[in-house]
User: Fold this.
Amino acid sequence: MITLRAAPAALPSGQRIYAIGDVHGCTDRLCAMHRAIAADMAERPVGDALLIHMGDYIDRGPDAATAIATLLGGLVVPGVRVINLMGNHEDLMLSALAEGADPEAAGLWLDNGGAASLRSWGVAPAAGPLAWRAHIPAEHVAFMRNLSLTHRAGGYLFVHAGVRPGIALDAQSAHDMLWIREPFLSFTGDLGAVIVHGHTPVRDPVVRANRIGIDTGAVMGGRLTCTMLEADRLGFLSA
Assistant:
């Protein structure tokens, strides 16, 4: 049962959005969250429902390969459309796998949890990028390449990390949208929309007048969090 409260923005009548924070290879929690959303939909049906995964499906946790396979599997919650956003960890992986990539890109990915992802695909981290490319399914790489950076709905913008204050939303850089923390997190002014984001782990979801943060550290002993937005209300699910 979701407890509803006032939200800092609103969606058009008849729309509902579920947004899930950073998964980081915690596929069991991801599937549990999908079941919780399905139960909420059964209890409180709505005509237009959208599920947004906020990026960082891979790295650090044990099941990156199955997380991607789950998202590639199609309809994860009956009756709910899905949009998958890119996170900085997908960006790191794609840079490491790119043909002719700087060797430092591979090291940077490994330093940020890429080794766990590689093991989930059955390839040794020490094998190097050529072997990595041979072992990781092409459809998994294509999935990451085709991820969206943002989604806009009503008074909200959904993006993995955040936005840079003072820059128009349609002029934000991809790097900032995937990586930014400050000055975004401490900014209290108008950002052009209420930003729903992950990327920065917190113990509990953060709701401010200009942003909603939903990375609650699933891979670090915390929870996987989903925010539900409908009309001018919000609530949370956790797994």
